[in-house]
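Comment thread on ticket #2218

A.B. wrote:
> Attaching the input chain for the structure job we discussed in standup.
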Amino acid sequence: MKTREKILYASLALFNDEGEPNVTTVDIAAEIDISPGNLYYHFKGKGAIITELYGQFEFELVDILNASLESLTIEDRWVYLYVLFERIYAFRFFYENQHDILHRAPELVPRFRRLLARKFRTAVALLTDLREAGVLAMGDDEIGMVSENIVLLQTHWLNYSKSRAVSLSETVVLHRGVFQMLSMLMPYLTEAHQSAYDDVKKIYHANVGSLDQ
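C.D. wrote:
> Ran it. Output below, let me know if you need it in another format.
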């Protein structure tokens, strides 16, 4: 692994584990046993590292959001959403300190807004597909409203989980995020698909256990 890649890898781990505001470039250099000057040769400060990491996250998430959602089973949709939440979790430092980071790096603001818009369009496509398949009974206004709520959940679910219970494992946090998201759709199930909520609960139980976690 080249030095630049080591810097990014170590930075991401430290930002996630220690909290981005608590990590300095000196900490990052010490983590991979290089001098601060060597780090500065590759990145002119912590802001440049954050911008590079955000670019990686953006690329990975957009790739997931562009995946086809047509004709997926409930289990397939669960896996898809789990992968989506997993990528967010992998770069969780950004979501946990989003406001401060965007304030310090205003060039990321339009990029993050575009990412939110992409999440919204994916949610609309998902709900529209389920409506056309006869699974959901939703009008266009309801699809728009629920899609906004889905993006809101994806954006803030980590901070909520962290505030509610600090001892939850990564697996529980991710599966609960997926369960909470799919639960938003339950009030709109058509009569022929009322059993879908039981299917969703079974998947959650199989992966995590009790819904109380």
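A.B. wrote:
> Thanks. Noting for the ticket: Residues 53-207 form a domain with the Tetracycline Repressor; domain 2 fold (CATH 1.10.357.10).
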